[in-house]
Structures are given as structure tokens and as C-alpha cells.
Amino acid sequence: MSVKKILVSQPQPSDSKSPYFDIAQRHNVEVVFRPFIKVEGLSAKEFRQQKISIPDYTAIIFTAKTAIDSFFHICKEMRITIPETMKYFCTTESIALYLQKYTIYRKRKIFHGSTGKLDDPTLVQYMNKHCKEKFLYAVSDVHKEDVSPLDKTKIKYSKAVMYRTVSNDFTPEEPFDYDMLLFFSPAGIDSLLKNFPNFEQGEIRIGVFGAATAKAVEDAGLRLDFQAPNPKAPSMTAALNLYLTELKDGKES
User: Fold this and answer.
1) What is the pLDDT, as a whole number, of residue 122?
2) How many domains, the chain?
3) Does residue 72 share a domain with residue 128?
């Protein structure tokens, strides 16, 4: 069975140069961007149940733009004024620059790594340099990121759930006629099964990003056709392009 229509369970890229568009043209396939999950910020009432006082902290760790939106929304709802002395530590420059939506960007109070990981050497160096600060780590309700890199630093930190991941339900009128599904988190697999409890994979191919998502596919009793990253493909788009090429050449394993 050839692949003609692919569902990518993420929002459509804003960049017209996204590799997905090149893949669609190169392999003559239709790529549809349709998130299976969506993110909702916690209300102030929900946040208060964690018994965390934001004003007690002097530094915040962000690993996603969603975390930034949720943090400032909670502060606004709780009428908390963030002091100018607050320091922000972000896993990428893109996330750090997003802070401009809420605060004046100053290098003396905003620090970032480049790899997107908590164990980024530059980010760790910054955190150790400011180890006397009291850190709050903004996470989601399904947070599964390894925090051991933080435990190895000199800092003292607390985790605070500020947003949740929920299923982005399909409507009865919405067609589901895909030859391939791409997932990026276990929550996406959960949403698939919630929307289609009698889902039968058949010849539908499934590709995933990350070991945790691959395990979720296995636990659901589904067939995993390819996974990224892998030795030949460091990204989902590279893995997808490789898979489609091998499928066309009859080399599918």
C-alpha cells in the first residue's frame, strides 16, 4: 500500500520553508497538520492547590513557550507583580526571546542554552553561577522530563505544574482517511485511542518521535513502522523522508 495522505499531529509550521512541505512535493503526498492534543493553562484556583507561593522564588526555569504563557497568566489572575529582579533560565534562545511578550528582555536577567535540554553545558553554567537564587521549574501535568541534570547542579528548585495536556477531540464530520500517522508524545497516542476506541491499524503506518512515544505505541498494541531519532535520521522529517524513499524503492524493512 502506498502512502498518499499523512497526518502530522502538530500545528502547521509558520515557516514556509519547513521540511514537511519539501517532503510533500518530493514524494507527491498530502501532509495534513492536525494536533491530537492541546495545552490548557491552569486556573489560579487550580494552581493554589499546589501550595506554591510564586513571590517566594527569584528565578524561573522554562522549557516551553506554553509554560511562559501559563506562568504569566497565573500571575495576572492571582494579581502577582513579578519583580524586575526575577531571573529566567530557558532551554533555547527561541524560548528566551518569547519572554519579550511579557517582560523587557535584558541579558542580565534572561539566560538560555542552545540544545533544548536541561543538561545544556551553557545553561548549567548559568544556573550554577546564580545558585543562590531560589528556582521554580514550570512543568505540565504530564511532565516526564529527566530532572537529574538539575539535581546535579548547585541550585535548589521546586517543580510547579502550570499547564495541562488534553485531547483535541475529532468531530463526527471530520474525515479520518490517512495512510500514515506521526506522533510526538505518549499523550498523542492516548488521544488517538480516546477519539477512536475501536481503532484498527491495518495498513496505516505509524511513525513516532522519542522512546517514550514508541513505548506508548507498543503498550497500545499497535505496530510501530519507524522511529526518530535514529542513527540515519536525527529528526522526524529526516526519518519520514528516509522511510518514504525506502518505501518507494521497495526497501522498507
Assistant:
1) 95
2) 2
3) yes
Q: What is the pLDDT of residue 38?
A: 86
Is residue 65 located within the same domain as residue 156? yes
pLDDT of residue 188: 92
Distance CA 136, CA 68 (A): 12
pLDDT of residue 116: 82
pLDDT at 252: 55
Q: Quick one: 56 and 142 in the same domain?
A: yes
- Backbone φ, ψ for residue 89 (5° rounding): -120, 115
Query: Would you say residue 224 lies in a domain?
Result: no
Question: Does any domain span residue 222?
Answer: no
Q: What is the dihedral of CA 61, 63, 65, 68, to 10 degrees?
A: -20
Q: What's the pLDDT score for residue 98? A: 93
Inside any domain, residue 225: no
Answer yes or no: do 151 and 52 share one domain.
yes
**Same domain, yes or no: 1 and 53:** no
- Asked if residue 223 belongs to a domain, the reply is no
Q: How confident is the chain (253 residues) per 10-residue block, as mean pLDDT? A: 92 89 96 92 95 97 93 97 95 92 89 89 96 96 78 94 90 93 92 94 95 93 95 93 92 54
Give phi and psi for 134, each to the nearest 5.
-105, 115
C-alpha cell at 13: 509550521
Range of the domain at 23: 1-36+168-195+208-215+233-253
Distance CA 159, CA 118 (A): 14
**What is the model's pLDDT at position 56?**
97
- Quick check: helix, strand or coil at residue 215? helix
CA distances (Å), origin 132, targets 17, 150, 190 = 43, 14, 40
